[in-house]
Recover the amino acids of this structure.
């Protein structure tokens, strides 16, 4: 998989999720399923959306003792998701357990495993006063990313502002906290536009409310693609979507 825009489908139900995705018609964007939707609908929502042809980032941020994370990741990887995550703050041994669980459970291709460094809602003040971490956010993210590298993780979740540091380590960077220039920050602290995320070196941007709350979600999604991807990447994206559309039409014909 190359660079891409991931839509955060943070909806409260399957009905709302499918209703939102129906706006895209034959387009099958890379989507994120997080705690809100997964805890309501369970594994079946992942299975159904995978069968419909969507690439899925399962964003459950596992954080527990190594044995528990190993077993949970083994089960989750059987769902055939394309990307999955855990918290880097769980330590190297826990992240290694996540890697082992994925290898044990995946039925075919291994999903990309990423580790959350610091949430994009975390500020320098919160880091020091509430979490009692006296290192800077940049240094903390770098250290957690270095631990992820040791553990055999594919990449990390960070803000776009730290993506260049992650890139230097040879890891993928998955960056939420994306806002258009004229949008509200909401509860995010470390944010960037799709264009800035591209300049900083993000591999994937995760975009939620700027798309899901937009008057025209498809236009907002296309705006993200235009700002984040190079022209040749956009062409490849269009070809990929056309292939998905053709496959859907063939499947429909067989059903008819």
């Amino acid at each position: 998989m190359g660079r891409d825009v991931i839509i955060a489908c943070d909806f409260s139900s399957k009905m709302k999720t499918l209703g939102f995705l129906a706006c895209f018609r034959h387009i099958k964007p890379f989507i994120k399923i997080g705690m809100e939707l997964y805890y309501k609908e369970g594994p079946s929502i992942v299975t159904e959306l995978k069968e419909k042809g969507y690439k899925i980032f399962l964003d459950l941020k596992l954080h527990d003792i190594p044995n528990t994370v190993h077993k949970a990741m083994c089960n989750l990887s059987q769902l055939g998701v394309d990307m999955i995550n855990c918290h880097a703050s769980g330590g190297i041994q826990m992240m290694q357990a996540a890697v082992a669980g994925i290898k044990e459970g995946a039925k075919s291709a291994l999903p990309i495993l990423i580790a959350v460094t610091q949430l994009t809602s975390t500020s320098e003040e919160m880091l020091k006063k509430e979490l009692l971490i006296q290192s800077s956010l940049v240094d903390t993210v770098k250290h957690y990313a270095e631990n992820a590298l040791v553990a055999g993780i594919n990449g990390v979740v960070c803000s776009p502002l730290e993506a260049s540091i992650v890139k230097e380590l040879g890891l993928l960077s998955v960056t939420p906290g994306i806002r258009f220039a004229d949008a509200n920050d909401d509860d995010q602290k470390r944010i960037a536009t799709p264009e800035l995320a591209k300049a900083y070196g993000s591999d994937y941007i995760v975009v939620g409310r700027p798309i899901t709350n937009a008057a025209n979600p498809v236009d907002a999604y296309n705006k993200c693609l235009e700002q984040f991807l190079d022209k040749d990447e956009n062409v490849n994206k269009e070809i990929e979507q056309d292939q998905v559309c053709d496959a859907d039409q063939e499947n429909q014909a067989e059903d008819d």
Strands lie at 4-8, 30-34, 56-62, 83-87, 112-116, 155-157, 172-175, 204-207. Residues 164 and 201 are 6 Å apart (CA to CA). Residues 231-255 form the longest helix (25 residues). The chain has twelve helices and eight strands.
